[in-house]
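PROTEIN FOLDING TASK:
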Amino acid sequence: MSANPFVPDGFTAPRELATDRFRLEPLGGQHNEADHAAWTSSIDHIRSTPGFESRDWPPAEGMPLERNLDDLVRHADDFERRTGFTYTVLEPGSGDVIGCLYIYPSRKKEGEVDVRSWVRADHAELDAPLYEAVSDWLVREWPFPADAVVYAGR
């Protein structure tokens, strides 16, 4: 990943997206145990989610909680440096981690934005609503041209 911000100077990334079915907030180390439990319970489901089919994450064999924390800290650092933006998807009320959203510069094409999201298998019905809400949010709140965003449809 680039060490340079991929959003314009002066742009402040939104800290939240809330609907009646889920809420997004920046992912960080405080989410470690719940994040780890969420994705490890849904590895096959995530790997079949659009945008993840050809990726090597999540690892089929899982990973230790300590390594997951390292990943979350890296994502939080990316957010602060504005080089990538990762949000945890939380269930309203309980605050339980039910998914994740990644917004990063494309590794394939300069100027494109790679957007991926997943939800836990037991919340699969939220995959399309999350996609729709995030797609609209990216148009309304983010500085990316609509034709630069690559987010696998649902």
